[in-house]
From TrEMBL:
SMART domains per record: PKS_KR
Pfam families documented for this protein: adh_short_C2 (PF13561)
Protein name (Swiss-Prot/TrEMBL): Putative oxidoreductase
SUPFAM superfamilies registered for this protein in UniProt: NAD(P)-binding Rossmann-fold domains
Gene: fabG2_3
Keyword Phosphoprotein: no
InterPro entries cross-referenced by the UniProt entry: KR_dom, NAD(P)-bd_dom_sf, Sc_DH/Rdtase_CS, SDR_fam
Gene Ontology MF, one: oxidoreductase activity, acting on the CH-OH group of donors, NAD or NADP as acceptor
Similarity section: Belongs to the short-chain dehydrogenases/reductases (SDR) family.
EC number of this enzyme: 1.-.-.-
NCBIfam families: PRK05653.1-3 (NF004198), PRK07231.1 (NF005559), PRK12826.1-2 (NF009466)
Length: 248
């Protein structure tokens, strides 16, 4: 029988203190990886790492992904603590939803900065390390909103569409160095954030899903595991929709 899919590998996951990021970290750990969790909230990410087993298997590092020096420190923590960097998951994100008429420049800039610049920082910094080692997998979290656009999300939709273009361009730059870069576009996933939306909005989104249900964070984690592991060894520059068939 083959061993765990990420045995003896080191993975960094941003936005990992809760939700999809935490589920990815948990799944990677179960498959043999050692994890560095990055998050803006220092206390929360420290507690999340402790819940995953503590420093033998997981550490938490405060990281503002819009700050290149913070991202450098996050990746250096992986190198210093576990001796390598094999997988990078750029998952950190925020929402500042508003119609285009009422959205402020600050709300637009914040979302673009965290999602798009943050993913660019994580991708370029991780790729620089991985290319020297001639291997590595980077997984970027986009969104269905980046494919079709959502009302009240001109900032978020623009950022998530940008992540697709960024991932494809970066994948072409580093493929010959043995580094793979792929993206995931989740649809409606059951998290604390989505469950807080108004019932009418939830029902409207559910009506668009052929499978008739919202996705679970574990279902995103499974796809991230596939892209991080050698199961997807001949895939780069791809975008996988995990949407239950919504808006296909």
């Amino acid at each position: 029988m083959p061993g765990p899919l990420l045995e003896n590998r080191v993975a960094v996951v941003t936005g990992a203190a809760q939700g999809i990021g935490y589920a990815i970290a948990e799944r990677f750990l179960a498959e043999g990886a050692r994890i560095v969790l990055g998050d803006l909230d220092s206390d929360t990410v420290t507690k999340a790492a402790a819940a995953l087993g503590g420093p033998d298997t997981a550490i938490g590092v405060r990281c503002d992904v819009t700050n290149a020096e913070d991202v450098d420190a996050l990746l250096q923590a992986a190198l210093d603590t576990y001796g390598g960097l094999d997988v990078m998951v750029n998952n950190a994100g925020i929402t500042r939803d508003a119609t285009m008429r009422t959205m402020t420049e600050d709300q637009f800039d914040q979302v673009i900065s965290v999602h798009l610049k943050g993913t660019w920082n994580g991708t370029r910094k991780a790729a620089a390390i991985m290319r020297e080692r001639k291997r590595g997998a980077i997984v970027n979290l986009s969104s269905l909103s980046g494919k079709v656009g959502m009302i009240g999300q001109t900032n978020y939709s623009a950022a998530k569409a940008g992540i697709v273009g960024l991932s494809k361009a970066a994948a072409k730059e580093v493929a010959h160095h043995g580094v793979r870069i792929n993206a995931i576009q989740p649809g409606l996933i059951r998290t604390a954030m989505t469950e807080a939306m108004p019932e009418k909005a939830w029902a409207g989104k559910m009506a668009e899903i052929p499978m008739g249900r919202a996705g679970e964070v574990d279902e995103i984690a499974s796809v991230a595991l596939f892209l991080a592991s050698d199961l997807s060894s001949y895939m780069t520059g791809t975008v996988l929709e995990v949407t239950g068939g919504r808006l296909m």
